[in-house]
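Supplementary Note 2. Why include the ligand at all?

Several targets in our set were suspected to adopt different conformations when bound, so apo predictions alone were not considered sufficient. For every target with a known small-molecule partner we therefore ran a joint prediction. The input for coenzyme A is given below.
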Amino acid sequence: MYHLRQTELLTPEGQDQYFSTIIAKQFEEQRPHQILFSFLHQNQCIGYGGLVHIDWEKATAEVSFIMATELEKNQFETNWSLYLKLIEEVAFESLHFVRINTYAYDLRPHLYPILIKAGFIEEQRLKNHILIDGNMKDVLIHGKHNTAIAFRKADAEDESRTYSWASNPSVRKYSFQKNEISPIEHREWFQKKITDSDCLYLLLIAEKGICGSIRFDKINPHTVLLSFLIDPTEQGKGYGTIIVQEGQLLVNRYLDDVHTIQAEVMHSNEASHYIFRKLDYEISESDKEKTTYVKKINS
Ligand SMILES: CC(C)(COP(=O)(O)OP(=O)(O)OC[C@H]1O[C@@H](n2cnc3c(N)ncnc32)[C@H](O)[C@@H]1OP(=O)(O)O)[C@@H](O)C(=O)NCCC(=O)NCCS
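The joint prediction is reproduced in token form.
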């Protein structure tokens, strides 16, 4: 009961009801609040857990896990360690989440060393946060970041890489400017962009190195125009989504007072439409050539 932060004993009926009304319907949802798994050993379910309190916007989730009580005595560390490895694959490699965390009442001293060994760090201790059996207990939050994903600002050394992207037919296809770009033209444009204080030009670094770019150009004091692309050899792996999802969170760290992000997408650019819809951008305009999406952000 204390693991599950539950105050009442569960009953089979109550559990069935919970499963059918809360859990089962999430199987069909695009962005469920939780994704749960059975944890099997030789085809026997010996535990369950998953990602809960998922925040798709921030790409974060809490990790939950319980194992069959009789295994806790001798297999606590083995099962927890294996489970963390598996759930990290789901969270970081498949879903590209940026951070996962655990949230545990300070009643589980055996768990913390296992988390630390798995690369989690103790991020927060909420002092006297919960009353358990008449005593106030702390809550401990351990977190782990997805080190496979990072951003850095584009600099002069990225000129040829960005030129090869810009001149690639699969990128040009969805560019509003169709004429061929010469290396000299690109150099001038690129130098201007990386030195312009009204432009934030970031590169996404993932498992295989730099795999895409995202740019925010101020078009008025409170609005930026977003442009992005993924290296043609790395497309279709979810990086298009992650670069917008994560990049948009960095805008106000580097540019001042941005309230709105705007993006223009050609009608035929299905993947981009999909990404902006998925990330809750709204359509503000549509003409013969393109759809304009906008999103309000916190400054
Ligand atoms: C647009 C672009 C950045 C997408 O990058 P990506 O890494 O392939 O994107 P993702 O892998 O995150 O795919 C995004 C979603 O679109 C879906 N998608 C991809 N191609 C699609 C298509 N032709 N039709 C419908 N959906 C499509 C994917 O299935 C994915 O959905 P999922 O998250 O449910 O799996 C990439 O195609 C690109 O660089 N294009 C050229 C430049 C460009 O168009 N930039 C944007 C200008 S607005």
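Residues 150-296 form a domain with the Aminopeptidase fold (CATH 3.40.630.30). The longest helix spans residues 72-94. Comparable summaries for the other entries are listed in the accompanying table.
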